[in-house]
Design a protein that fits this description.
Elements lengths: L2 E2 L4 E4 L3 H20 L14 H25 L5 H47 L2 E3 L4 E6 L14 E4 L11
Antiparallel strand pairs: 1-4, 2-3, 4-5
């Protein structure tokens, strides 16, 4: 017999599990955003990821040193062994830079997945409150406090009273 307005809560399910899932998903998103150095409101740039920036700087330094060694080799100031060592260092740092970019891309994809899981967890948390679909009267309560309910369980019957329709046989 209780009057309810549209959207009024009819029952509240225990939100503990849904709240824990939402908190876990929020933490995952925050962790990945911190790892990728993503600032709120700023577009993601792979070159802004600290590991990528460090690998790029190391590669650039190795390339600059290799260019100097190459000119010194032409002048016969350094040995062929040192030249070969610097060339190998350039290749290694280039590979490290590519690996850092790949790792950052993977982490960004993980972040997208974590954001999707967060959206699902938030929706599950919102779904712990069953609301009246329209204004009316609760004519029957089908569950009591402490009852175990699953998806699809009918919890109450709400009747729309405005406009009220009556069918009579004369």
């Amino acid at each position: 017999g209780s009057r309810v307005s549209e959207g009024a809560p009819l029952i509240t399910l225990a939100p503990l599990e849904a709240q824990a899932a939402a908190t876990d998903a929020e933490a995952s998103v925050a962790q990945l955003e911190a790892r990728l150095a993503i600032e709120p409101g700023v577009a993601f740039s792979i070159d802004g990821v600290p590991e990528v920036a460090a690998a790029r700087a190391t590669r650039d330094l190795a390339e600059a040193e290799f260019a100097r060694i190459r000119s010194l080799l032409d002048q016969k100031v350094v040995s062929q062994a040192e030249f070969d060592q610097r060339r190998a260092q350039v290749e290694a740092t280039s590979n490290q830079y590519r690996a850092a970019r790949n790792a950052a891309q993977q982490q960004y994809r993980m972040l997208e997945g974590a954001k999707a899981r967060l959206a699902v967890a938030r929706q599950a948390l919102a779904d712990t409150v069953v609301r009246a679909p329209f204004a009316g009267l609760v004519v029957e309560r089908k569950v009591s406090v402490g009852d175990f309910v699953t998806r699809g369980t009918k919890v109450a019957t709400v009747v729309k009273v405005a406009p009220l329709r009556v069918e009579l046989t004369v």
